[in-house]
Specification:
The complex is a heterodimer of chains A (239) and B (334). Chain A has 239 residues and is an alpha/beta fold. Chain A has two domains: 149 residues, P-loop containing nucleotide triphosphate hydrolases (Rossmann fold); 67 residues, no CATH class. In chain A, 38% of the residues lie in helices and 25% in strands. In chain B, α4 packs across α9, α6 packs antiparallel against α9 and α7 crosses α9. By secondary structure, chain B is mainly alpha-helical. Chain B is built from 13 helices and no strands. Classes of the chains: A alpha/beta (239), B mainly alpha (334).
Amino acid sequence: MIEVRGLTVRFGGVVPLDGMEVRFDAGTCGLIGPNGAGKTTFFNVLSGFVRPAAGTVQAFGEDLFAMAHFRRARWGLRRTFQTEQAIEELSVYENVAMVHEHSKLSGTTRRHDVLGAINLAGIRSPPSARVGTLGAGERRLVELARAIVGKPRVVLLDEPAAGLPDEETARLREVIRKIPEHTGALVILVDHDMSLVHACCETTAVLDFGKLIASGPTAEVLRNEQVIRAYLGTEEVKL
Amino acid sequence: MRPVVIAALLLFVLLVFPSLFSVYYLDAWTQVAIYSIVTLGLALLVGRVGMVSLGQGAVVAMGAWVAARLLFATSLPFPLVLLGSGIITMVLGTLVGLPALRFRGLYLALITLMLAGAITVVLAAINFPNGGRGFTGYNGASVHIPPIRRPSIATTDPAFFRYSVIVAIIMFLLVLLQIRGRPGRAWAAIRQSESAALAAGINTTFYKLWAFALASFITGVAGGLVAGSFRYLNSLTFSTVDSITLLAVVLMGGAYSMWGAIIAAFLLKFLQALLNNWGVSPDWLTILFGIGVLQVLTTAPRGLVEQVPKDLARLGRLVRGVFVRKPATEGPAE
C-alpha cells in the first residue's frame, strides 16, 4: 500500500506535482493523465531522482523519503523507464541478476530467482544473449524481468507498451497481469494505451496538472466526464 | 582454447623476447609492459565507466615518486614497495577522481587535466621529492638523486623486463576479475544510464570511486615499475602532456577491450623507441597520434583492436579472391 500526501514538486516556476493526494492499495493500479500531467515526475520522486518541495509518501508503513535512492530498489521499489534502459553490454541474465545481487540470499537461491523472473517475463532469447543484440520487445521484457526479480514490493511501469506493435503489447499485457499474483507486489502502470490499462488495472487514478482529478474502479474512471474533458482538453466537443 | 593461446603467447614473450631484442629494444618492451598497466587503468575509466580522466599521467608520477621514496626510506622487498605505492596512489588518485561524482565528459576531463597540471607544476617548482634521506627526504635545490634500487631477483635488464611483464599480468588479471564480477556489471550500467543503475539498486557513487581507486592502484604499481626501470627520477620525467597522449593512444588502441590497452602501450612506447633509433624527432609522434585519433574516431570507434582483425580478414578475402580466380584465366601471361 502506498499513501501519498500533499506531494508537491517545483522546477523553478513550473509545478509538475501540486499537492497530489492518492492511495494505491494492492494489485495493479493504473495512473493516467494527459502529457505533462506529472506521471513520470511522480515516478521520479518515488525513485529518488527528484526531490519534492513538500509532502510524504508512506510505502507499506515506511517513509520512502528516508531511504537513499539506490536503497529503495534493494527495499523492493522497482521501475521501468519510458525509454527502455536494459543494459546493452550485459547479457539477459546479468541484467536481471544485477538487481538481485544486493540481496543477502545464497547464490543458488539468487540464480533460481533470476531464472524465474526471466521465465515469468516470457523472454524467448537465451539468458546468455547480449541485450544489445535483442529487439525492442524483448528488451522491454528484460527491463520488466529486472523489475520483478526477487521480492519486489512496488513495481512502477512507465509506458511499457510505448512504441511496441500490437502483438508485442499483447505479450506484455499477459506478463503485467501475472505480476501481482506471482510476486505479491503492488503494480502502478502508466500508459496511454487505454485498452492495456483497462485489461490490467482494477483501479485507476487520473492526474491532470499535477493534481488527482479522479480515482476508483478503472471502468468507472474511464467513463468519468471530467477525465474525458482532461484528455480532450476542451469543455464542449461537438461531432 | 583461448587461455592456452594466451598462455603460449606470454611464455614466448617471457622466454624468447630477451634473446630476440637488443638491450635498447628490450627496454622499450619493458616500457610497453609497464605502460600497458597505465593504459589499462585509463581504458577502464573511459571505456567501462565512461569517465574521461586526463589526470592519469600525474597518477603515474605519484606512483613513481611514492615507490622511489619507499625504496630510499626502507629496505622493504620490491613487491611490498609496489603494493605500498599502489595503495598510497589509490588514495591520492581517488581524490583526483572526486570531481567525477559531480561532472562528466568534457568538464571532468578539464578538471582532471588541471589537477594533473597543478601536481606536476608544483613538483617541478619545489623540486620535491628528490634525493634526500627518509620518506620525505629533501635535498634543497640539488637535483642529485641516488640510483633507485631494483628487485634483487631482477637487477639486470632482461630480468627486469620479465619482472614487469609478470606484474602486468597480475594487474590485468585483477582488473579482469573486477570486470567479470559485480563491479563490472555496475560500471556497464553506470556508463549507459545512471538512472537505470540507481533503479537497479547500484550505489553509483561507490562504484565510480571504486573505478578511480582501482585504476589509481594499478597505475601506482606501474609507477613503481617506472621508478625501478629508470633508476633515476627527476621532476621533469613526467609532463602534463603525457596525460593527453595517454588518452589519445587509449582511444586508438581501443578503450573497450583489454587487448586495446596493450596496443595503446605499444603505440606510446615502442613507436617512440623506434623513431628515436631512426633519428626521427619524437614530435612526429604527436602529429601521428593526432591523425590516428581522428582516423579511429571517424572510422573505427572501438579502436585498432577491433579494426585490424576486420581489415586483415578483408585483406585475406581479397588475396584469396586473386588466387582463386587465377586458374580460371589459365595463369598469368608472362
